[in-house]
């Protein structure tokens, strides 16, 4: 297994805390819920992408890159984390962001977009179908100008990035052993698929007995996400030279809690408000709100046994809360949300 010999740059403050959520557990009448605080990874505003970037930026440094090119959604926390990693290592950052139209510019700089601006990122906004070609074009232009760009692809959900969440399980196993816990489930949000791929591989490789549940971010259905995660797991196992039997039966996905990528919904707003009020924990309104809405609903339906231990993975991104201030305030005041589809969404066209 190559896990310990991969190029790696230390960017995260590890291990991240594992904390109990007793008030939420009591409100739901079980199970016993713990949160793994990967929002506290220590790079920028924190998040799961830091673990992946340790390996991806390790490759970039090994290849002597002097700038980073990457792509994602308009308010992406991946872009924030990538920008922070690049700047920390003395590299310039070029990002291609999706929006409702080419060259979209918001009236206000808020949330992650503000952070991208503050990090000095060179930004280009395009429609989704032009996102990857635009990144390739920027990279070609940089090479022609004598630069050494490194493209961070698929929001870090590539084989080297998956290694970050295999290591995560090794870290978690040590923590649950110290606390005398035997968790049955780990709930998280699955988007680009790399976190889920790493969690499943790690859970099996280190014999934890943990069943990984993914709630989609709204970009894909179960039918689309499942084969994507399976393909990424197989690719990662080959890359890491690991022998492990993995199949479709290991992948558990729910796709009914986000409605659409980045959409503001009452289910997600309820999850954000509940955790803030009950535990002083701030989720992000796109990713962790979806998986917490899933956990809450499954608990209410009796999916978990009352004495079971369930771990919730907080993957960061809380800076996005400020971009969603209008629908979140409306929900908190018992009013109709002013919008479901964000103004910056490609679905607004």
Estimate the helix proportion, in percent. 40-55%
User: What is the average per-residue confidence, as pLDDT, rounded to a whole number?
Assistant: 97
Number of helices: 11
Instruction: Point out poorly predicted stretches.
Output: none
Biggest sheet statistics = 6 strands, mixed
Q: Given the C-alpha coordinates, what overall shape results?
A: globular
CATH topology of the largest domain: Rossmann fold
- The Cα radius of gyration reads 19 Å
CATH class descriptor of the largest domain: Alpha Beta
Q: Can you characterise this structure?
A:
The protein folds into 2 domains: 3-47 and 158-332, Rossmann fold (3-Layer(aba) Sandwich), CATH 3.40.50; 49-156, 3-Layer(aba) Sandwich (Rossmann fold), CATH 3.40.50.1100. The protein starts with 17 loop residues before the first strand and ends in a 17-residue tail after the last helix. 40% of the residues lie in helices and 15% in strands. The chain is globular and about 60 Å long. Helix 2 (49-62) crosses helix 6 (159-179), helix 9 packs across helix 10 and helix 9 (266-279) packs across helix 11 (325-332). The longest helix is centred in the middle third of the chain and has 21 residues, at 159-179. The strands form 2 sheets. A 6-stranded mixed β-sheet has the order 1-2-10-7-8-9. A 4-stranded parallel β-sheet has the order 5-4-3-6. By secondary structure, the protein is α/β, with parallel strands linked by helices. It contains 11 helices and 10 strands. Strand 7 (185-190), helix 7 and strand 8 (211-216) form a beta-alpha-beta unit.
């Amino acid at each position: 297994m190559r896990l310990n010999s991969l190029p790696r740059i230390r960017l995260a403050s590890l291990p991240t805390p594992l904390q109990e959520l007793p008030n939420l557990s009591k409100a739901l009448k079980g199970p016993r819920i713990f949160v793994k605080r990967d929002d506290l990874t220590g790079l920028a505003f924190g998040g799961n992408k830091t673990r992946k970037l340790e390996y991806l930026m390790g490759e970039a440094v090994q290849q002597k890159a002097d700038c980073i090119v990457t792509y994602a959604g308009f308010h992406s926390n991946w872009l924030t984390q990538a920008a922070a990693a690049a700047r920390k290592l003395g590299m310039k950052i070029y990002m291609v962001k999706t929006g409702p139209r080419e060259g979209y510019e918001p009236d206000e700089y808020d949330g992650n977009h503000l952070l991208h601006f503050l990090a000095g990122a060179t930004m280009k906004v395009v429609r989704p179908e032009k996102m990857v070609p635009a990144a390739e074009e920027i990279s070609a232009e940089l090479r022609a100008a004598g630069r050494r760009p490194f493209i961070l692809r698929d929001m870090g959900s590539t084989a080297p990035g998956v290694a970050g969440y295999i290591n995560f399980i090794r870290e978690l196993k040590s923590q649950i052993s110290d606390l005398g816990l035997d968790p049955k489930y780990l709930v998280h949000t699955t988007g680009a698929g790399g976190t889920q791929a790493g969690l499943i591989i790690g859970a099996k490789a280190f014999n934890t007995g943990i069943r990984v549940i993914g709630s989609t971010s709204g970009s894909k259905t179960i039918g689309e996400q499942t084969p994507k995660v399976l393909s990424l797991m197989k690719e990662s196992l080959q890359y890491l030279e690991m022998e492990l039997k993995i199949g479709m039966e290991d992948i558990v996905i729910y796709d009914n809690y986000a409605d659409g990528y980045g959409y503001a919904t009452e289910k997600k707003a309820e999850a954000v408000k509940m955790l803030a009020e009950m535990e002083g924990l701030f989720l992000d309104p796109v990713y962790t709100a979806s998986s917490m809405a899933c956990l809450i609903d499954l608990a209410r339906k009796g999916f978990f046994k009352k004495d079971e231990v369930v771990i919730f993975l907080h993957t960061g991104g809380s800076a996005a809360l400020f971009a969603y201030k209008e629908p979140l305030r409306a929900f908190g005041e018992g009013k109709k949300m002013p919008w479901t589809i964000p103004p910056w969404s490609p679905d607004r066209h």
